[in-house]
Amino acid sequence: MIGPVVAGAEGVLPGLLDSLVAGRPGPVRIDVSSRHAELARWAEARGLTTDRQTAVMAYGGELPGERSWLFAPANVALG
Questions:
Q1: For the CA atoms of the chain, what is the radius of gyration?
Q2: How many CB atoms lie within 10 A of CB 42?
Q3: CA triplet 67, 69, 71: central angle to 5 degrees?
Q4: In the chain, where are the structural domains located?
Q5: Is the peptide bond before 27 cis (omega within 30 degrees of 0)?
Q6: Which of 51, 52, 54 has the alpha carbon at shortest distance from 76?
Q7: Which pTM does this prediction carry?
Q8: Closest Cα partner for 56 from 3, 7, 18?
Q9: CA nearest 72: which of 38, 42, 37, 39?
Q10: How far apart are alpha carbons 45 and 53 in whole angstroms?
Q11: Span 17-73, pLDDT tens digits
């Protein structure tokens, strides 16, 4: 599982993510927000497929922080 992925610009993601998955055995999971097309293309180019959608939620109010910097949330349903 890769995430959360937080970056100041979408353009830095390919290099950052490539370094995270390099040489990792087994499957890779990343929850990609639909508003980040470049990240979705990165995932598809590496053979990752769409399985389901994930909602980003916060208890008791708005999500904190700069939302435009959140490219891939961490899924809490990992078990």
A1: 13
A2: 20
A3: 95
A4: 5-72
A5: no
A6: 54
A7: 0.62
A8: 3
A9: 39
A10: 19
A11: 888 888 888 888 887 777 778 888 888 888 887 766 666 667 787 777 777 777 776
